[in-house]
Target: Glutamyl-tRNA reductase
Amino acid sequence: MSLLVVGLSHRSAPVSVLERASLNADAQLKLVQDTVAAEPATEAAVLATCNRIELYADVDKFHAGVAELSTLLAQHSGVGLEELTPHLYVHYEDRAVHHLFSVACGLDSMVVGEGQILGQIKDSLARAQDSHTAGRLLNDLFQQALRVGKRAHSETGIDRAGQSLVTFGLEQLAAGADVQTWVRGKKALVIGAGSMSSLAAATLARAGVTEIVVANRTFERAERLARILTEGDDTDVLARAVPMDSVPDELTRADVAVSCTGATGLVLTADAVAATLEGRTGAPVAETDGARPTGAGATVVREVREGAETPLPGAGAVDENCPLDLSPVPAGFSVMGEAAVAGMDAATLEQHGAWAAGGTAVDRSREAGRPSPEADADLITALAATAASVGRIPERRRPEPVAEAPRPEPVLFLLDLAMPRDIDAAAHRLAGVRLVDIESLADASADAPMAADVDMVRRIVADEVAAFGAAQRAAHITPTVVALRSMAADVVAGEIARLEGRLPGLDDKHRAEITQTVKRVVDKLLHAPTVRVKQLAAEPGGAGYADALRTLFDLDPETVASVSRAENSTEKNRGPA
Model:
């Protein structure tokens, strides 16, 4: 059997696809159950977070396993296989181990180094164990991934390379300002009471908000989170719980709202946010430019011909005597530029050169200080020669930035950490609103600098992958070694029984001494070969030693299989580390 992972994440798929492919708890359970029921797989686990969905399985056939796991992901996510396939990635054997260890260390997170993924891996293992779909391989894999992640955080400064998604989101809301300074004195609304919402509430409390209101569909969970926040030793925040239907009223009083629920639809629509703003200001809310802002001082770019101070004849400015058809030329582009001469032959361009030299429309449109008609004629002749040799005229242009109209200062800050999204993306167009969601966080973190500690973590991951592979290969031969020793014990027992038949008068003392001697001989004969075969099996390419041992000693395959089944049964009942 071999480890296979098929999945998609923020690195391989757009947020819109991830959002549609997200799986709730029931869907995850059904997915792993259907996976182990499929022919290629014997174990399965799902790792589903806000920016990744991955299906891990122990399969006996690679190609059949990839096809089956991909199909199951498509079926349970509701995204068609043809649409999903371009965004899927596949890892096998050591590459699959390397991938999960990297994920556990935060190297594959949207915010490098974030530690929340460890809790999500632990939850994934617990769900697989509860559904009895995790055997020896996945138990070993996920528990080792947890240990590798903890090692990375304790032995390196990976925490300095990035923050939790919550902290990063708050930094984006603060738009470069110090978060603690920015958030001080503000009132916060937290929608949801799960792990991410609880982390957001605790982060806001430590940052210095004056009040936190927690809303959740299960009011008791909201109350419990509010009580934890109030009783915390490291904050003095005022926290209270409200039912979910109080969100619109509470939003009119909040400065910052963080939402992360398991809802399948929108929790806050753009209309609801607009109504909230109208309730705060008493004035209708306008929409700004539909383009998502990219930060302070964002600009738009238009292309202008280098050196062109006045638009030359183009569309709507055609001289009837001009031999060139200038109607397709956009206003503001030179008649000598690419837009005019693309596809023109050299003879036509030479005609235009002669016409320009005669002092016609182009000459009359010149400003003082511009080149003479003769210079233009020479230039066009050169252009004609170029067109004859390369077929088109490259035009040199430079971007000219034009500042877009500034957005009004926001009065309501929204952080959407849910997948699928809780807050309508259209809310970012409302004047007075700043919305940060998973999509904008992905854009903002794409070019985040990598710390030197990341290289240290990568080395840890590489070492741990090698160690895990060696341990798995050694463990693969263990059932065969156990079966060999069991066969040797049966041989000893049979020979002692034959000896007693031949020597019926043998007393207990001598019988025990003979039995112990025979056992020592057998143990010494088997010790060196079994130790050595374990060492050889742990090396790359050592999988064949188990088969060789079974063949050399004519071991019963069912005996070996029964040992493996007993080990798997023990692993499935083991709790997460």
